[in-house]
């Protein structure tokens, strides 16, 4: 206290509850006995009560309040000097300085400081909470983004694998179809081979070797197999060249000088050809068989290029 008789300097802090317990008790005792100081405290309470900041303000530690108050008091006491004459005469014993007038100013400053301080604390706490929420939100966002990126990457990998699997599947299906065709071809060839063999080996089958013409290769030979009363005709050929482009070996049957195209013959790389066909009529109704090298589209009558021929 600056004044030993009247605790003027301590009254604002007393009203604001900023004094230590023992000092507060001392001020309270003085106020009870001193109407002048009591009036001062009342006037200060009025000022404080008018300040919106004073109500509900956060309570900083008493030590902080006192330091703040002391700082404000020191400043206000100086700046308040010119205003002193406007106030009622101060009892000389109260102070050598115009502290009495300075008190409301100090109180206002202190209350504002405390109020703003509280508002600042509040704002800072709010800011801290928001910052924490923002940090949490950022973390969540980062996590989601990471998961999304992983999902995208995973999705792309899955799509790539799916595409590869689909390509593999299509490839496998194509291979399977090819295999099925090969199997069917082999089965057909097998059946055909069996038919050849069983037909040729049948006891009622008769065979005839065809004669070669001057247009046949030297070692060419052809043989036909047939059964009386049946339409089936089997032809086996060896030593024949493959037909030149645009031409084809064709099998003819003739009777009464009328030739009928029965089928075409494909010679393989080894010079071998085999053909099994059914003639329009039983084989014993025909009197001639002939194999010619014809133009591809020549089907109405045999060309002059006769390779094999025989009378039946
Ligand atoms: Zn007093």
Layout of SSEs?
Layout: H1 11-15, H2 21-33, H3 35-50, H4 62-79, H5 99-201, E1 206-212, E2 221-226, E3 232-238, E4 247-255, E5 258-265, E6 273-278, E7 288-295, E8 306-311
Antiparallel strand pairs: 1-2, 1-8, 2-3, 3-6, 4-5, 4-7, 7-8
The structure holds zinc ion.
Zinc ion is lined by residues 6, 30, 34, 36-37.
Salient structural properties:
single chain; 312 residues; alpha+beta; 2 domains; eight-stranded antiparallel β-sheet; 5 helices; 8 strands; 18% strand; binds zinc ion
| Main pleated-sheet profile | 8 strands, antiparallel
- Which class best fits the helix and strand makeup? alpha+beta
Radius of gyration from CA coordinates: 63 Å
Helical fraction equals: 40-55%
The secondary-structure element order is HHHHHEEEEEEEE
Strand content: 15-25%
Low-confidence stretches: 53-58, 78-102
Q: Indicate the overall shape.
A: rod-shaped
Roughly what is the average pLDDT, rounded to an integer?
77
Note the gap between the termini: 154 Å
Bound molecules: zinc ion
Number of domains: 2
Question: What assembly state would you assign to the polypeptide chains in this entry?
Answer: single chain
Task: Explain the overall architecture.
- There is one protein chain.
- The protein folds into two domains: 8-129, no CATH class; 206-311, Immunoglobulin-like, CATH 2.60.40.
- The chain has helices at residues 11-15, 21-33, 35-50, 62-79, 99-201, and strands at 206-212, 221-226, 232-238, 247-255, 258-265, 273-278, 288-295, 306-311.
- The longest helix is centred in the middle third of the chain and has 103 residues, at 99-201.
- The chain is rod-shaped and about 165 Å long.
- β2 (221-226) and β3 form a beta hairpin.
- It has five helices and eight strands, in the order αααααββββββββ.
- Residues 53-58 and 78-102 have low confidence and may be disordered.
- The chain has 312 residues and is α+β, with helices and mostly antiparallel strands.
- Bound molecules: zinc ion.
- The site of zinc ion (ZN) has 5 residues, from α3.
- Zinc ion is lined by residues 6, 30, 34, 36-37.
